[in-house]
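Q: Can I see a sequence and its folded structure?
A: Here is a first one.
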Amino acid sequence: MLRRVRAGHLVRVAGAALAIAVLPVLCRAQAAPEQRSAAAETGQRGVFLVFPFENAGADARLDWLGEGLEELTIQRLSAAGQQVFTHEVRAAELERYGLPSSARLSRASMLHLAEDLDADYIFFGSFASDGKNLTVEGRLLRVSPAALFPAVRESGTLDALMELHTRAVWRLLSSSDPGFPLQFREFSRLQRPLRLDAFEHYIRGRLAAEDEGRVRELREAVRLEPDWPDPAFALGQASFGRRDCTTAISWFSRVPKAHDRYLEAVFSTGVCQLWLNQPERAERQFLLLQDLLKNSASGDLPEILNNLAVARMRSGKTDVAQADLVRAAELDPDDDDYPFNLGLLALRANDFPGAAAHFREAVGREPDDDEARALLIYALERGGQKAEADAERAASLSGGEPLPAVRPETLPRLDRVKTELDTTALRQEIETADAAAPAAPASVRAAGPKMTSGPAGHLRAGRQQLSAGHLPEAEREFRAALAADPHDAGAHRGLAEIARRQGRLEDAAAEYRAALESHDSATVRTTLARIYLEQKKPELARQELEKALKLAPNYAEAKQLLQRLDAGKPGAGR
């Protein structure tokens, strides 16, 4: 193990765990005044995407440092008030392309990924050790227009890793931006003091393939740094994955409000309480989340609304549960869980025609949802629509597999709980949350990152409005971005999503094609293929999927959709 070293001072101030700064004031309000002041001076440079550092040496025992330096870089940038995507967001994007989070990418591939995520800067690097000394090299790549800044290198003993990495990050920020206002001493003071051996255990725990090894490493990190919330949160996630809810809730309770994983900890705690059939406690957790997000541009999140509705449904609060689910379905019209839960709610009220309508909608969105189809048949039968029920049953039997049996006593256990908080809608949350809270102290309000001007500012504002369901406002922002830059692929994608939500499929397809003219993307081609399938244009869909797989041969979503298309399954476009 590496020996204990010092690393800087104080805590993170930006909400990197929710992709980029979510509710920055919530996090910064807990910081010391001198920390808030220093963070306020850093201004806004853009959004960073960090990749693992490459082990350029011969010592494979230090391979853990690849993701370790990625995580440290995220911490350093976040603590200095910069906006940065988390490891989880990068890994999830790679997973969409069928690649492991540890995959080594060329600079061109890094740029492609950054463009899809709308990052402004890429941070990557390498390290090497001779067994006693360590050299860390950092590189910064601007996405648009593409420009690679000169590398910076720092060397020192292995146990000085924290200090030399902090200096490397500071040098790269200050050398690439002549206006960067923080001196190294100020930059260092913003960093959390952290034992290097505890950090090593934490990273090894995250990398562990087996649950037992993961828990052992993370517990050792907690023992060495009992006030560090990151390993506690990771232990909560591990217990959550095993549905060991009592243990998970205990670990999540150690994540403070100022921490950047707090919202996820609250969400997972609420899910656990639903699993434990504690609807009143779960309702309080999801109401707390809504309260925390009430001033954010993202507005309501459908996952939170769904789980809040489930908690209220179990408590007999039918009317408010229904309103929550209707709102969730409006915000995420492609998800079949929301009409499914609405169908269950209607069944409990003996509204069989209403239940049948909701289950039919769920089946339309996901034709392979046998449970929804079985409940549709059940609702039709209970509503006296025997002919329609028989037709649905005959259609289902043609698939070869019998539908699951539906019994009235099982209905209360069928509601669908969202187990993950989708941070996509939050990752462009870069406006200060205190815009609607003028009572906050000026020193706190000043600490919030400012919206960039020009096309990027309009683009991010448009995404915020879109995620909040404010389509006219979002369209105005996207069109403003295109007025400044007619080739902005992100703005075209935003307009396409608005058109798709409004049922204007031809307009949506045209906007996606315009986006592809500016920036080719497997994700956009796959989405365009779905639209073509909705328009009953399977050959055009096939062409787009084949092009997507040429760009990203392991892209799971495109492969699955093409397989469905090849199999001729009905409703493959959903």
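Q: Show me another, different protein.
A: A second, unrelated one:
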Amino acid sequence: MHFKHPEILYALLLLLIPILVHLFQLQRFVKVPFTNVKFLKTIEKQTRKSARLKKLLVLITRMLLFTCLIFAFAQPYFSEYSQQQKFSTTIYLDNSFSMQAKGETGELLKSAAKNIIENNTISENKITFITNSHFLKDIDNKNLKNLLTKLNYYPNKLDLNTVLLKAQQGSNDNSIHKTVIISDFQSVNLSNNNFGGTSNNSTSILKLNPKKINNFYIDSLFVIDETSLETNIKVILKSSLKNDLKIPISLFNDSKLISKTTASFNNSNVSSVEFKLPNAKNFNGKITLVDNALEFDNDFYFSISKPEKIKVLCIGEASNFLSKIYTKDAFNFKESLPKNLNYNELQNQHLIVLNELENIPKELINHIETFIKLGGHIAVIPSKNIDYNSYNNLLRIGNIGEILTKKEIEHNVTSINYDHPIVKDVFEKKVTNFQYPKVNLYYPTNLNNSSAIIKLDNNDAFISSIEYLNSSIYWVSSPLDKESTNFSQSPLIVPVFYNMASHSLKTGHLYNIISSENKVEISTSIKKDEVLKISNNNLDFIPLQTSTQNKVSLNLENNIVRSGFYKIFKNTSHIKTLAFNYNREESDLQYLNLNTLTNKYPNLKISSSIEEVFNEINNQQKINWLFKWFLAFSVLFLLIEMLILKYFNK
């Protein structure tokens, strides 16, 4: 038994006073003469015994009466914890798009929100409420109800480990904390199936199960062929389960229907369709299918704009292979010797190639340093005889590294880093029987934070990249003349150098995926007092932006949370349209096995319903007050005392 006001119990010491009075009370008896003394003594003895018993009973009932009153004012109660103990509760409700799935009583998110409103009776201790889009600490019931009523789906999901970290932030010091996680627990919500970071706090997990686990969705699309008249695109569709169904697909340009077709899955969970688009200045496309499982992935937006030519400047001797790769239809390619170079044009380029220079002039190094710091990209191809000091001065920009020596020994180019962005989309699968080129001369280097794109058979890098600020520096360890290597005759040279240039301007995407860190680059120039603005039918905002002489980098942060088309304006002039789509990670309805988590982490408890969760919380925090019982007993002892005084005969 605990007491809310235990200091009142000190009043029990006052009960010693009536006890002492009773023990030391002295009565004076008056002597009355009477003839029959023997009879009088008998009456007197009986009267004294009755009086003493009556006084003792009255004393006991009064003592019990005042004891019960004192206990009642001290407010006694039964509970697992003391009344001074603080409780804190954190509830995470997953509002990602997979919660659109239909359960027994409708959409999982809407049903969960309704059940929380109906069962939440936690009034004294406020709740920390977390969703993918909210973190609200110590929210009261009224505000929680308003939030749950208006809660919408959010495209950026939280990893479950991140949820636990946020829950710990919501817990109060020296409090008993309870965490409740309500989700459909998709596999993508837990990185590497590792639910780390669980603390000693009690955590209940409630899994919401959809009735239907087969979902059709548009996964991606890409250009497969392009002519002067039309562009062919391929659309990849997927299903959570293998099936033989046929799904109708529609193509729109803005709101105008262009074409319809059917995707056949043929006992598979992957299908594809192709569309031919007329080449126009701009094409704002939307692919649509009909599926009732999840709705967010039924539409897919893309935008094809008039291609912008990428500016590439080659400084050094004329190169036949570069001019063949950087053709006029896609690139604005220029070549210049260092002595004829117009340094004012450097900052207007997207990619600068230093092609087999024996010596790099100091003035050129200074301009390249400025070019790199402003987000430009460079590729360095050494000559057969280089001035080490000038090259190392270049590589000292940002502490990139240094050239060690020259090795004139034959090696084969044998290894490709298929995960590197430069070659990631070049090969459909890893090639094992490829006829790799040879190298007779190369310069080993010691580069900091470099990533090898292609390696030699001795594991030295042949072509590598270094990320510095917002720039990429590509180092080719060998001259590319025919005497040093036959790499220029290899099929690898075209995609490698083509992608070096295409990655220097990140504007060629047909679409963007909504995330918490969206960044895009726009090929334009703005004046000092100008900014770019992004707008669509529901949103207008000015993003964070960094401008150089030929492009503007936009950091969209969390401003874009709805799929669709977004126009970019410079002043009132529309310069580009971007297409944004929701991430499809949650479209493949694959769920975690919660039993494996509870076996590994004993602090986790699986709950079967929201009602059960709140019953557990209420029972944990429940206090059984006893002061009413003590008041009732005090009244009872008062009645007993009155009965003793009235009916107890002396």
